[in-house]
Amino acid sequence: MNLLITIYQFVLILLVAPFAAGMVKFCKARLQGRKGASPFLPYWTILTLMKKQMVISKSTSWVFRLAPFVVFGTSLFLALTLPIVLVGGALEQYSNFIIVAGVLMLGTIFLIFGGLESASAFGGMGSSREMTIASLVEPTMILVFGALALSTKSSEISQMVSHMNIESTPSVLLSLLALILISLAENARYPVDNPATHLELTMVHEAMILEYSGPYLALMEYASFLKLTLLSTLLVNLIFPVGLLMESSVGLDFVLAPLFFIAKVIFMMAVLALLETSIVKMRFYRIHEFLLVALFLSLGGIILTLVNTIL
Asked: pTM here?
């Protein structure tokens, strides 16, 4: 039964992820006084890219061809293990925060390799910038989930969602705030990166995938859709865990769970669009200040959690 529910969550996330990316653009357009494209446009974008012919530089090796599959595969792994629609699935033991952080880092590493392999100036520049950002994002993520693990007495993110109680442990608020900041960086959103630009002075993520085309580019784009959906919904579930499926769920729960999931996605994408409409992208040499704020918040969160645990 757990395996079937896990597959149910997996398929649901795959279906909703492109809508989440389209919803951000749709909400931003409306907030800026424009009509904007349909939130369902990313579905057609993926289908169009899958039909396109790939153009691959002769300077690349097998690493360039492998990178899209690894990046997409890491997102699929997270969709199977993280408590997005389901708590306590068949792969719950793999939701250990160390494993999750390692899988995220693996995807980032191969994304960087893909940017370097093309031997283009833009790819190398984007990869260099991404390595700088990742060096602060990944340690902060481990500290955040370490504090949540101390608070909930479990290293599995699925159990963190089940046992999280912000009212009884307000010390985790700093950790959750840090998680919000690093989620923006992990998804290449404002103020760290602008996902809509191809200006060489500002782009980071787009520079690394600039040489990809056709199905390879579709995999890269889909992986970014999945990561955005997963991290944003996980954040909601940690703060407000409602509408999640469990082992004891009955027939009606399987109807309500997708509705709660879609509602969470729409809410988070609207909030993200409002945030990106209200702020501007930071200069690259100031991004470390933003990430250091997240790092110190996570340190404060884990210290307060330790003190609260000891007392």
From this structure: 0.95
Closest by alpha carbon to 294, among 169, 134, 152?
A: 134
Closest CA to 137 of 108, 173, 176, 174: 108
> Counting every residue, how long is the chain?
311
CA-atom Rg of the chain in angstroms? 19
- DSSP line for the chain: -HHHHHHHHHHHHHHHHHHHHHHHHHHHHHHTT-----TTHHHHHHHHHHHSPP---TT--HHHHHHHHHHHHHHHHHHHHS-SSBSS-TTGGGGBHHHHHHHHHHHHHHHHHHHHHT--HHHHHHHHHHHHHHHHHHHHHHHHHHHHHHHHT-SBHHHHHHH--TTT-TTHHHHHHHHHHHHHHHTT-TTT--TT---TTT-SHHHHTTT--HHHHHHHHHHHHHHHHHHHHHHHHHH---S-B-TT--HHHHHHHHHHHHHHHHHHHHHHHHHHHHS-PPPHHHHHHHHHHHHHHHHHHHHHHHHHHH-
d(CA 101, CA 53): 34
Cα angle value 184/276/215 (rounded, 5°): 65
Domain boundaries, the chain: 2-310
Do the Cβ atoms of 245 and 86 come closer than 8 Å? Answer: yes
Bridge partners, 245 (sequence order): 86
CA 104 to chain centre: 9
- Contact by Cβ (8 Å): 86, 150: no
Structure tokens at 215: 């199905």
Q: Count CB neighbours of 268 within 10 A.
A: 21
Cα distance between residue 143 and residue 148, in whole Å = 9
pLDDT in tens, 170-222: 778 899 999 999 999 999 898 998 887 766 667 888 889 989 999 999 999 99
